Amino acid sequence: MAMSERGGTPTPASVEGAGQLLQLIRTGHARTVTQVAAAMGVARSTTLQRLEHLQHLDLVRSELRTEGSRGRPAAVLTFHPRAGVVLAAHLGLTGARAAATDLDGQVLADRFVTVDVAQGPRALLDLLQRTFDELAHEAGGTVVGLGVGTPSTFELKAYARGHGLSALDWDRDHFRDVLAEHHQVPVLLDLDVNMLALAEHRASWPDAEVLVCVKAGTLIDASVVVHGVPVRGANRLAGELGHIKVVGADDPCACGSAGCLDAVASGSALVRQMVAAGHQVDHVSQVVQRAEDGDPEAAHLVRRSGRRIGEVLSSVVNLLNPAGISMWGYLTESESLLAGVRESLYQTALPGSSEHLRLAPTSLGPLAGVRGAALSVIDAVLEPRAVEQTIRTRSWSVAGRQ
């Protein structure tokens, strides 16, 4: 989205370093012009030039404060998170949550909409654009970027086969380009589980060298965060937990193989198992509710699912020795599932690897995905090079691309 022309034409000298200056203020490492100039090793006049650009974007504000009980008030520099609005969405197979956040990732407005990806990307795009427009109006301010977490390719293929479709015509590049054209801001797409993991790491596990985030819903997926960054893999297929084989299982999987964790322990698998046993259920949330209400068959199936997930996770724990495993999704709403995971995981994993391991449901609840999507955009648009590019072009940018 284009921005105001005020401030005159930026010169290379006045722009260079403005992004680093913003980082110093955002992180609290410098609070006054004198502190910023000392930290960057430049003159006050240079600092003031760079600061002017950030103030034109409303990213930095200055207010007089008196430090202590005496002394003359000093101009204290603060980051202004309401300088921009980020629109974020977490797309599931049967529903989507969208939100508007400020530049600190705080949710200003959100809503959940029912969606069926089997209707195709065009219908989903139309719904998402309408929802984003409503949220932008509700939040107010300048939209600086969009972040969208999407299901994995395997999830889309599995869902298509489960609904009698040969495939889902899902072109991620086209999806991103349509959103970018409509909103005229950078758009970042990533797997929803990666965005979940990013948000969880920032909120609850900031010191964890390795964190595993498991999405246990209609299907099962995972993300591994190392030093705060989700690992994506050579072909961006890292984290396919649902397609690890379960010992003794031979149920056919939508991926074309058999015995996968998805085929025996996912939400869709539990629905199939309940229907085969003569129960009328349509969605995993109904299975979980039955288990929590004391239905012995549902409780048994959910706990067995947890034990199978724990068995597979034990290999992940032995390999990566994570500090924690964070779980999100419909299935994690059942204590029976979590109990099953703990039972199998701690029995099977090496004692040295699991001794201090913490297993917990997500601390962010249903907002975890949109919080992660927003954080990915904030990281990108406020990265120092991107800030300087934004100042030069007078439109919000991501470093290295428009």
Query: How many extended strands?
Result: 12
> Strand order of the main beta sheet, please?
5-4-3-6-7
CATH architecture of the largest domain: 2-Layer Sandwich
First-to-last CA distance: 11 Å
- Uncertain runs with pLDDT below 50, 5 residues or more? none
> What is the fold named in CATH at topology level of the largest domain?
Nucleotidyltransferase, domain 5
Evaluate the radius of gyration: 24 Å
Per the principal axes of the C-alpha atoms, what is the gross shape? elongated
Q: Mean pLDDT score, rounded?
A: 90
Structure in words:
The strands form 3 sheets. The protein has a 5-stranded mixed β-sheet with strand order 5-4-3-6-7, sandwiched between helices. Strands 10-9-8-11-12 form a 5-stranded mixed β-sheet. The mean pLDDT is 90. It has 402 residues and is an alpha/beta fold. The protein folds into 3 domains: 12-79, Arc Repressor Mutant, subunit A (Orthogonal Bundle); 83-185, Nucleotidyltransferase, domain 5; 206-363, Nucleotidyltransferase, domain 5 (2-Layer Sandwich). It has helices at residues 12-15, 18-26, 33-40, 44-56, 121-139, 153-162, 172-183, 192-204, 261-265, 267-276, 284-292, 296-320, 335-348, 351-354, 368-381, 384-393, and strands at residues 60-65, 74-79, 85-91, 95-101, 107-114, 143-150, 187-191, 210-216, 220-226, 229-230, 324-328, 358-361. The radius of gyration is 24 Å and the shape is elongated.
